[in-house]
Amino acid sequence: MDCLQNPNPSSAGPYHFGESIDPSIDFDEFSDCFMLDYGVDDHQDSSSLSTVSPEKFMADCFTGSSGGATSRNSNNNINEGRRNKTEMGHSRVAFRTKSELEVMDDGFKWRKYGKKSVKNSPYPRNYYKCSSGGCNVKKRVERDREDSSYVITTYDGVHNHESPCVVYYNQMPPPVDPNNIWTLRASSQSSASS
DNA sequence: CGACTTTGACCGGCGC
DNA sequence: GCGCCGGTCAAAGTCG
């Protein structure tokens, strides 16, 4: 299991953000990562995006605020009209990331349990569950139908455990530059990969 | 051999 | 009531 890529909306730290398996993805591209409005999974248009800087997003996530930077009960929620799953204590976070890869490894271990073609989209949607025992977090991954270079990831729920990478990081010596999360992340990464 | 992925079937909610 | 659609299940296949 590699601890690469992407923000995690539940408990992963900022040092998870901004690095990719794919060397073609650099940090600049992660500035294209948008928080999507809640309920975006029914395929939003870009006007419904609520853009949040990755830094803010991750900061919110890391403080444990449920749902991160999302607006939890935003209006214009198409999906929740169908299924009012998101009740108290049930958060959903979606974001859109420019990536060649569909699998956004966020440090958690996911088990794929389904794949569906989506109406009005040429790309299938993949369904994953957190494979940690007792953790019922799910995520959906699909390509943006309008720009296939983007991947839309929707997390459903909050992990009741830490990311294996967070656990690992807590055992690490102090970062090279605590003010630079990229350095910090890279430092962690290079050690982890050995 | 265990863990994981694939994929068709099934189920429930919603709109007409 | 019926059909469509999204989400989940589970058996079979694959991989390390």
TrEMBL record:
Its main location: nucleus. It comes from Prunus mume. This is Probable WRKY transcription factor 51 isoform X2. Residues 99-164 form the WRKY domain. It is found in: Nucleus. Keywords: DNA-binding, Nucleus, Transcription, Transcription regulation. Pfam families: WRKY. Residues 64-85 are annotated as: Disordered. InterPro entries: WRKY_dom, WRKY_dom_sf, WRKY_plant.
